[in-house]
Amino acid sequence: MKKLISILCLTGCVLGIQAQENLTQNTIQGLLQGNQAQVIQLAEAFSEEQYDWRPMEGVNSVAEALLHVAGANYFIGSKMGFAPPEDVDIMGLTKITGKDNIITALKKSNAWVLDKVGEVESGELGNEVDFGFMKMNKLGGLLIIMEHNGEHKGQLIAYARTNGVVPPWSE
């Protein structure tokens, strides 16, 4: 019995150490997943017709904003060393039309980037990455992914409210 308790304690310690090692990635994944879920809820709440709505000429429509998030997930992840799925044409995402197709593309992108956040090794968080628009470390890249999704969630909330769409989580 003492041996079993010792083994269980040792296993718990090892798992605790592993969880601590990935604390940053796990935390970012959790926050990102929450933002992603709300963006998907908003995407589903807009009508098909509202996907073409834009606040003014020259500003992204609902559809374009959603596809921008999907594309940015792949772009930022690729700059961090992760190849996008072979069946994804990052430059072709803007050609996707139709509410269901856009939501499908966004969900795929969300799942992919969420997985990649978890694949970043703790020892690599300080490694420099050239994102094209600036150089920073991988931790900064993970935070950009999270912040970018949150920024566009806010944009889509404003779009929704302007169009009489209530964010589903606030009903």
From TrEMBL:
Annotated positions binding a divalent metal cation: H68, H148, H152
Record family assignment: Belongs to the DinB family.
Signal peptide: 1-19
Pfam families attached to this UniProt entry: DinB (PF05163)
Protein name (record): DinB family protein
UniProt xrefs under Gene3D superfamilies: dinb family like domain
Molecular function terms, GO-annotated: metal ion binding
The entry's keywords: Metal-binding, Signal
NAD keyword on record: no
Family matches, as InterPro entries: DinB, DinB/YfiT-like
